[in-house]
């Protein structure tokens, strides 16, 4: 199964970008044996529309343009479901084992996600009740994806 990340906003050079790259590199190397192939990070600029509803709609349209109807869409949103790391890993493995060929994790813009996109999503998750900057969400997602494949592999990276 191919996994990608779609993000509204771009990471600038610096430690956050380096840390994300490090985890995604580990994911690429470890994931293949588990049937997980990390493909890409697709970044778009935030919409410049005059109101939040239009910005969310434009950002959602940009995401939808990259998806096939069969792509599993996972949104990161404060209203999503919380998982522990083993549960997150199991959810990804379940989609893989169901024969899903592609999965995209989407990080919306500062205004949140368009309601139509939430309707389309196969899963909506959160990384806790706190509000996180987009750069940190990207780091958390990259690390948890890497952790998920190490759990699938029985690798000792994850310790209870």
TrEMBL record:
It catalyses: pseudouridine(1915) in 23S rRNA + S-adenosyl-L-methionine = N(3)-methylpseudouridine(1915) in 23S rRNA + S-adenosyl-L-homocysteine + H(+). One of its GO terms (biological process) is methylation. S-adenosyl-L-methionine binds at residues 76, 108, 127-132. Its EC number is 2.1.1.177. Its main location: cytoplasm. It is found in: Cytoplasm. InterPro entries: Alpha/beta_knot_MTases, RlmH-like, tRNA_m1G_MTases_N. Keywords: Cytoplasm, Methyltransferase, rRNA processing, S-adenosyl-L-methionine, Transferase. GO terms for molecular function: methyltransferase activity. Homodimer. Belongs to the RNA methyltransferase RlmH family. NCBIfam families: PRK00103.2-3. This is Ribosomal RNA large subunit methyltransferase H. It comes from Martelella mangrovi. The lineage of its organism: Bacteria, Pseudomonadati, Pseudomonadota, Alphaproteobacteria, Hyphomicrobiales.
């Amino acid at each position: 199964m191919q996994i990608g990340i779609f993000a509204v906003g771009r990471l600038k050079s610096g430690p956050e970008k380096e840390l994300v790259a490090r985890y995604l590199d580990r994911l690429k190397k470890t994931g293949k044996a588990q049937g997980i192939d990390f493909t890409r990070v697709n970044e778009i600029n935030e919409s410049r529309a005059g109101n939040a509803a239009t910005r969310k709609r434009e950002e959602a349209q940009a995401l939808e343009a990259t998806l096939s109807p069969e792509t599993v869409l996972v949104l990161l949103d404060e209203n999503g479901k919380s998982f522990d790391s083993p549960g997150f890993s199991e959810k990804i493995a379940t989609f893989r084992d169901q024969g899903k060929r592609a999965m995209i994790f989407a990080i919306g813009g500062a205004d949140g996600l368009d309601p139509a996109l939430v309707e389309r999503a196969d899963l909506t998750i959160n990384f806790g009740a706190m509000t996180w900057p987009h750069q940190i969400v990207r780091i958390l997602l990259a690390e948890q994806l890497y952790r998920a494949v190490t759990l699938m592999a029985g690798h000792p990276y994850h310790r209870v």
